[in-house]
Amino acid sequence: MSQLLTTDVLIVGGGIAGLWLNARLRQQGYNTLLIEQQSLGGAQTVKSQGIIHGGTKYALQGALTRSSEAIANMPERWLAALNGTGELDLQGVELLSNAHYLWSPGSITGNITSFFASKAMRGRVDQVKGAALPPALQHPQFKGRVYRLAELVLNVPSLIQRLAELAGDSLLQAKQLKPLYNNHAQLIGMQADNYLVQAQRVVLCAGEGTAELLNALQLQQPKQQLRPLHMVLVKGQALKPLYAHCLGGGSKPRITITTHPTTDGEWVWYLGGNLAEADGVARSADEQISHAQQELAELVPWLDQTQLSWQTLRVNRAEPAQSGLVRPDNAFLAEQDRLLVGWPTKLALAPDLSDRVLHHLTQHAIQPTATQTYPDLPRPVVAQPAWETLF
Ligand SMILES: Cc1cc2nc3c(=O)[nH]c(=O)nc-3n(C[C@H](O)[C@H](O)[C@H](O)COP(=O)(O)OP(=O)(O)OC[C@H]3O[C@@H](n4cnc5c(N)ncnc54)[C@H](O)[C@@H]3O)c2cc1C
């Protein structure tokens, strides 16, 4: 026998997009149910580097594009939430670093340097030296320049844990999802295992799983693109914290390094950027590790690599389709009757996606109904990050 659950908004997918949206809607008084197939954050979100970009890395092209303007206020919004004064109360979420750095191992070309010093970038990019350098770069052999960006790096598992708390009793784990239609062939919800969930709106934010859900709904649009990445993880006591894009001359960072504490008291460097993109994807795990070892030997030659452990992680980024696999820089939301389909395109842009959903609800006069509770549902667990499971 199926059990009927009714709610205002049904959210499919418990990554950052679904969890942030769920918390915001609940805070506005909406009843919500969020269905997660596996674990909370376990697809892309806890595999992310946790950087709350303000768009400054796009300034590597030497100009602030429109997209970098759009993302520019994200660090401020997240910081307010972390301080308990923002749109969500994220007090207790661990801030790994209150800055991300741009690090040029050589000399940055004249254009970029003068752009960094320009009025557009004032207060967003400051050069740091000596004791103000990130600990991993404080070494007599260090050469190059380092710029501090007003961006944040979060401990993503602690973020997901907090959003799971804010979700209260609204989380439901279900393996099988099928669309539910009324007699007029209108979507009215989802069958999720033995539950029939009816809602005024259904929001798909299932990351890579969205394509299959759209297929089940017999919809051709919006189309999704996947960008495969081959990340590298390195663990050991010789590592010190470093949160930086290392510049390589092109418009993308040569390597992006974030540092994550593990429960056994060590640090893991998580390496992405260009290293993890096309050429990196083509490499086998062993080739990718040996490439990363050479990169670090060149960039941080004082780092003793003898006691380090190495792993790689393959993961797809799921985004709305763009021509030529260009990176989309805004949260994306498509609307079709009662169905909304979203990809935040970045962890940092989850608030932007929620804004768009809330705007839709306001425009269509969808109001919160009387408060419901959902006791005794099967609940999804919070995913473990790769730095805990791979070593
Ligand atoms: C290696 C890497 C590094 C990154 N670094 C950063 C960064 O530093 N900063 C940044 O801003 N962004 C970063 N990103 C991007 C960011 O991680 C993603 O944009 C964001 O996490 C996407 O969140 P999401 O909720 O849309 O998707 P996901 O996190 O993929 O969540 C989707 C959820 O939906 C669930 N699901 C799928 N199908 C179904 C179904 N049928 N029924 C129920 N549930 C389903 C999945 O199990 C999953 O939990 C990074 C991404 C990667 C891969």
Can you tell me about this structure?
This protein is of the alpha+beta class and 391 residues long. The chain folds into two domains: 3-45 and 158-223 and 322-388, FAD/NAD(P)-binding domain (3-Layer(bba) Sandwich); 100-149 and 227-316, D-Amino Acid Oxidase, Chain A, domain 2, CATH 3.30.9. It is 23% helix and 29% strand. The chain is built from ten helices and 19 strands. It has helices spanning 16-27, 66-71, 74-82, 110-116, 156-166, 210-216, 278-282, 285-299, 350-363, 386-389, and strands at 3-12, 32-36, 51-52, 95-97, 100-104, 125-128, 145-149, 152-154, 171-173, 177-181, 187-192, 195-204, 224-236, 244-246, 255-261, 267-272, 309-320, 332-336, 339-343. The strands form three sheets. Strands 1, 2, 9, 10, 11, 12, 18 and 19 form an eight-stranded mixed beta sheet that branches. Bound molecules: flavin-adenine dinucleotide. Flavin-adenine dinucleotide binds next to helix 1, strand 2, strand 13 and strand 17.
